[in-house]
Write a structure and sequence with these properties.
Blueprint lengths: L16 H23 L2 H24 L5 H25 L4 H20 L18 H7 L2 H21 L3 H25 L16
Length: 211
C-alpha cells in the first residue's frame, strides 16, 4: 500500500510554478538593484523595490490559486526576500549615505529578528508558512504577517526614506525603522514566552470576525 505524500513536502513542488516565480522575481530584483548600485539612480531603486514587492505578492498568490503552497516554497521565499532586501538596501546606502543609519536599524530588524520570527512556523509541523501563523498565535501574526504588517515591514521604511530625503525630515525614517524594530522585539519576546510555556498562545482567525 502506497502512502500519499503530503502536499507540503512533495519534492515536485520544488520546481513548481510558484518557486519558479520566486526565482525569476529575485533575479530581476537583484539585477535591477545591481544596476541601481552602479548608476546611483533613485528611479532604478524604486523600480527595484517595486519588482521585489510585486513578485513577492505574485508568487504567494499563484501558490494559493494553484494549491501549491509548500514548506520548501515558504523557506525559499523567506530567503529570497532577504537577498533582495539586502542588495537593495546596500544600493540605497551607497547612493545616499545619509540613509545608512535607518537602513542599518532596518537590516538588523529584518535580517535578524524578522528572519527568526519568519522561520518559527517550522516549529509547528501543521503550519504551512508564516501566513498561517494565526493558527498558533493571532497577536504575533497580526503584528508581523497580516497585510498591514507586511506593508509596514519594508515599504514604510523605504517610503519614509524617500519622503525624509525630499522634505528634510531625516528623523522620519529613524522613527519608522525603530518602531518596526520594537514590534519585532516584542514579537520575539512573546514567541519565546510561548515556547517556554510562560504564556499561552492565542490562536484565532487571520482577521476579526465581521459583525
Amino acid at each position: 500500500m502506497t502512502t500519499a505524500v503530503p502536499l507540503a513536502v512533495r519534492p515536485a513542488l520544488l520546481l513548481g510554478v510558484p518557486n519558479r516565480i520566486t526565482l525569476i522575481r529575485t533575479v530581476i530584483a537583484m539585477g535591477i538593484a545591481t544596476y541601481a548600485f552602479h548608476t546611483g539612480d533613485l528611479t532604478w531603486l524604486v523600480i527595484g523595490y517595486f519588482s521585489y514587492w510585486f513578485g513577492d505578492s505574485l508568487d504567494g498568490w499563484v501558490a494559493r490559486r494553484r494549491n501549491e503552497e509548500s514548506l520548501s516554497g515558504a523557506v525559499f521565499d523567506i530567503v529570497c526576500d532577504r537577498a533582495c532586501s539586502f542588495l537593495l538596501a546596500a544600493a540605497f546606502m551607497a547612493t545616499y549615505p545619509e540613509t545608512i543609519g535607518p537602513l542599518a536599524i532596518y537590516l538588523v530588524q529584518f535580517g535578524v529578528l524578522d528572519t527568526m520570527l519568519s522561520f518559527s512556523f517550522l516549529l509547528w509541523p501543521w503550519v504551512l508558512s508564516p501566513n498561517y501563523f494565526y493558527k498558533v498565535d493571532r497577536p504575533i501574526y497580526l503584528w508581523n504577517w497580516s497585510k498591514p504588517a507586511k506593508a509596514m515591514n519594508t515599504g514604510a521604511v523605504v517610503v519614509s526614506l524617500i519622503v525624509g530625503g525630499y522634505t528634510g525630515a531625516h528623523w522620519l525614517p529613524y522613527s519608522v525603522a525603530i518602531a518596526a524594530c520594537v514590534v519585532k522585539v516584542v514579537s520575539s519576546y512573546r514567541l519565546l514566552e510561548i515556547l517556554r510555556g510562560r504564556r499561552d498562545a492565542v490562536p484565532g482567525e487571520p482577521r476579526a470576525t465581521q459583525v
